[in-house]
Design brief:
mainly alpha; 8 helices; globular; single chain; 3-stranded parallel beta sheet; 254 residues
Amino acid sequence: MSVRIEHAPRTVLETLQLERLQELLARLRRVPRGEGLPQIESLADLEKLPFTVKDDLRATYPLGMLAVPRDQLRRIHASSGTGGTPTVVAYTEHDLDVWSKVMARCLAMAGLKAGMVVHNAYGYGLFTGGLGFHQGAERLGALVVPVSGGVTARQATLLRDLEAQVLCCTPSYALHIAQGLREAGIEPDQLKSFLDTVPDRDRIDAKQLHHYSDILLDRVMRKQPALLQHISDPPPQLDRIPIGRPAALNKDLA
């Protein structure tokens, strides 16, 4: 993966963005729903383009908005449908390649490097979270542990035994994992490799992580008592935990 584009001047980025946008619109005009799309001469013309919203996807459920033949599709993802008809999104081989590159860039900016061990506790399946992080990490050359969500005791054990250096999950599920570490009797110094990739200026050691999980649990429970009954149930959809400075974390929790 080239990193030169990460440092490209704004003029270079805008030229590339305009070229790719015009190529996209040219493809979309080949299908009935895209025939009336306006011509775009500059990025300022973006305001001329219509939005695609969830209602459009629901109205054409399941695959009525495809712009390619179905035999070019390689994967389907979808929402849970709790708000009504599920929104279904189809991916071509090229889509999956772009997705992997984008996630690899995000992870690289967060400090992930080839050879690191990634404990991926996002949900897998129709939800896009787990597979997106999985693909991006592998694209960078990392070793991925696709543990997904749930079975917190196993999460704690695998973090220690496989010497994970990167944890991908929601902040709330990280609290469950911290609790699982305590219940399993896993000491902070047994997770040393988990902290090797965090710069000194941003480092939260394992003892602090245990301490902050207590603070978070205490303050969440005082502000949202109704959440207490759910504290042992991991959320069905998972997101990544950010790592920040202890001072900033204390400020956010005040």
